[in-house]
Amino acid sequence: MLTIDGRQAVVRGQRYDLPALPVKAKVSAWEVPEDYRSGGVFIAVTPQGGVEEVPACASPVLIGEVEIDPDHDAVLDAAKKEMRRRVNAERDLQEVKPFSYLGKRFDADERSVSRIMGAVQAAQAALAAGAPFSVDWACADNTILTLDAQQMIALPAALAQRVHAVHMHARALKADVDAAASLDDLAAIDITAGWPE
């Protein structure tokens, strides 16, 4: 006979620890030869939707099957892991959104950052040569802003500050996720709010 006591399966007076799972699972106990498993018992735990493991020996005999509920801590841990994944995904989206500089919004996608760095190199070369430098930059709203060499060179610093602020906000959100004591606490965390402009 198979019974469940807390997070243990009990078969013939012997106790077998069960994993803490975030989903319902089926626990199956099989009688098997002693040389296959010490104690002559094979325990299989199959998470809901998983593939059932069966003894790979001759003539196993099913003793019993019992369904177990998800483990509360495992459910919370899985929810936290998923929330941290969502925070990271939102952080990655925020990193490439337009950022503010000189009262305007500048694109920050990969192609725009490459263009910024190319223009910075041109500005630095002009300064080193003592040559004038000016560029008409198309902002995120399609307006044009004329930048001199110093303004162009300072543009990546503004981007870096925003990226740093985005990462600090993501870190704070993940700290809130880690501190959550319940699923309700997790649900109260708005990962779409508070990101720096």
Give structural attributes:
197 residues; alpha+beta; three-stranded antiparallel sheet; elongated
Protein model, in words:
The model has no long low-confidence stretch (mean pLDDT 95). The termini are far apart. β9 and β10 form a beta hairpin. The chain is 41% helix and 25% strand. The protein is of the alpha+beta class. It is elongated, with a radius of gyration of 30 Å. The protein has helices at 72-95, 110-129, 149-179, 183-187; strands spanning 2-5, 8-11, 14-17, 25-31, 41-47, 61-68, 99-101, 104-106, 134-138, 144-148. α1 (72-95) packs antiparallel against α3 and α2 runs antiparallel to α3. The chain has a 3-stranded antiparallel sheet with strand order 1-2-3, with no helix packed on it. Strands 5-4-6 form a 3-stranded antiparallel sheet, with no helix packed on it.
Secondary structure blueprint with pairings:
Layout (H helix, E strand, L loop, with lengths): L1 E4 L2 E4 L2 E4 L7 E7 L9 E7 L13 E8 L3 H24 L3 E3 L2 E3 L3 H20 L4 E5 L5 E5 H31 L3 H5 L10
Antiparallel strand pairs: 1-2, 2-3, 4-5, 4-6, 7-8, 9-10
Helix pairs in contact: 1-3, 2-3
SSE sequence, one letter per element: EEEEEEHEEHEEHH
Strand tally: 10
Distance from first to last alpha carbon: 63 Å
Q: Segments where pLDDT lies below 50 for 5+ residues?
A: none
Q: What's the shape?
A: elongated
Major β-sheet profile: 3 strands, antiparallel
Proportion in β-strands: 25-35%
Biggest sheet: strands side by side, in what order?
Answer: 1-2-3
Mean pLDDT: 95
What is the tally of helical segments?
Answer: 4
Instruction: State the helicity in percent bands.
Output: 40-55%
Question: Using only CA atoms, what is the Rg?
Answer: 30 Å
The SS-based structural class is alpha+beta
